[in-house]
Design brief:
Layout lengths: L5 E6 L5 H11 L1 E8 L2 E9 H8 L9 E5 L2 E12 L6 E8 L6 E10 L5 H4 L2 E5 L3 E6 L8 E4 L8 E3 L10 E2 L11 E7 L1 H14 L1
Parallel strand pairs: 1-4, 2-6, 7-10
Antiparallel strand pairs: 1-3, 2-3, 4-5, 5-6, 7-9, 8-13, 9-12, 11-13
Function: This is one of the proteins that binds to the 5S RNA in the ribosome where it forms part of the central protuberance.
GO cellular component, one term: ribosome
Keywords: Ribonucleoprotein, Ribosomal protein, RNA-binding, rRNA-binding
Amino acid sequence: MSESFELNVEIREDMGKGASRRLRRLEGKVPGIIYGAGKEPQTISVIHSEIIKHLEEEAFYSHVLTLNVNGTPESVILKDLQRHPYKPKINHVDFLRIKAGEKLQTTVPLHFLNEETGPGAKAGGVINHTISAVEVSCLPKDLPEFIEVDLGALEMDQVIHLSDLQLPNGVELVELALGEDHDQAVVTIHKGRSAKSDEESSDDSAE
């Protein structure tokens, strides 16, 4: 993890929906909560413009973050966001505390490589991403920003499953721990309509 993210947050005393609305409308802040690691949950607030800026970076979603809680650092991961239904605003944010020696579970994005250079794609195949992120289990020090999926050797009608992914050391997929029937497809490739039409035309002309 090459990047680091820090957020300054304040402990929030006022509770309830009315207090949260005032916080968002009058102070430009987002209500939130920190929980986990055997400690009591702690209600907080964070400046809206500050968290919006961080959310523009993909790595923020799958990084160990440092929250400066009234000046005291806490190691956390972003666990949940509640967004406004139509405005570019955050209504609430949840952070999960972590410990260096304890495994965590969180979602990391998939990065698909060499989509246009594989033999299936060159033959006119249409690639379908059935999932774009996976839930992983690992120690905080092993948490990857993303997991790469190389499609450079993908043949027509081939399927890449979760079990085919190349994982960094110390990282496991939560779904695979649930059993073989959870080994879902990640990427599929099949002939597009134009390729099928060309084949059908060739068959008709051959007759």
